[in-house]
C-alpha cells in the first residue's frame, strides 16, 4: 500500500488539472503515493484528459456536483495511504514539497495535520493558516492582520503550531481524519477545512504550518465561473460554521453584518 493518498476534487477545471497532476507525478520519485481524482460531473473534458494522459490516476466520476466535502469523503473511502493529501486542482507542487510534509509528519507522531506555504502569481503569499475564527477575529483579519501575516510568511522559517491550515493543500494523518469524523458534508464549499482542523485538534492532535514546503496556488479556480452564486455559498457556509463553533454574540454580530453584505450581493446579482 502507498504511504500517501492524494485526493483531488475537480469541477470543470481542465485548464489547471494537467499542471497539477504533472507536478504530483514528479513527486513520485520522493514519496510512494497514489492519486485519486473525484470529478463532480464536469462538462469541460476533464475526465477524458485524465483517462488519456494519466491512466494511473484512479478516476471517480460523480453524476452530479456533490460539493467539496462529500466528494473528498468519497475519495477517502477509496484511499489506502496512512497519510492523505487533499489538494485543489489549481495548485502546482514545488519540488520536494510532499517529502518535506511527509518527513515532518512521520517524525512528529502527535501531528494530525499540516499545510505548506501557498503562494500565487508574482510570489504573492497567501494566508493559508490561522487561529480561532470568530466575528472580531475575522474583522481584524479583513482590516489589517492578513497583510501582517503575508509579510511574516515571507520571512518565516520555523514550523508553527496553529488551529487550522488551508484545504487547498491539506496533509492529514489517516488516523486523525477518521477520529475527527471526516469532512462535515453540510458544507458544500468553504469553511469545511477550518471545521475539520478544529475537530482534529479537539481530538488531541497538533496542526502545523510548515513553511519549508511550498505550493503554488492560483486560487478561486473552481468558483470563478460561479461568481455571485459562490458568494452566497460562502456566506451560507460561514453562518453554519459560526453556528457550530462560535458564541451567540458572534452569531448575532455576523448576521447583522451579513444583512448589508447580502443586500449588496443581491443588488449586483439583479444587475448582471
Can you walk me through this structure?
It is built from nine helices and twelve strands. It is of the alpha/beta class and 272 residues long. It has a single domain, classed as Alpha-Beta Complex (Spore Coat Polysaccharide Biosynthesis Protein SpsA, Chain A), CATH 3.90.550.10. A hairpin with a 5-residue loop joins strand 6 and strand 7. Helix 6 crosses helix 7 and helix 8 runs antiparallel to helix 9.
Mean pLDDT: 92
Structural class call reads alpha/beta
Instruction: Let me know the number of strands.
Output: 12
Could you describe the largest sheet, including whether it forms a barrel? Answer: 10 strands, mixed
| CATH homologous superfamily designation | Spore Coat Polysaccharide Biosynthesis Protein SpsA, Chain A
Low-confidence stretches are none
Helical segment tally? 9
Instruction: Estimate nothing, just give the exact number of structural domains.
Output: 1
**CATH class designation:** Alpha Beta
Look up the CATH topology.
Answer: Spore Coat Polysaccharide Biosynthesis Protein SpsA, Chain A
- Report the CATH architecture: Alpha-Beta Complex
* Rounded Rg: 18 Å
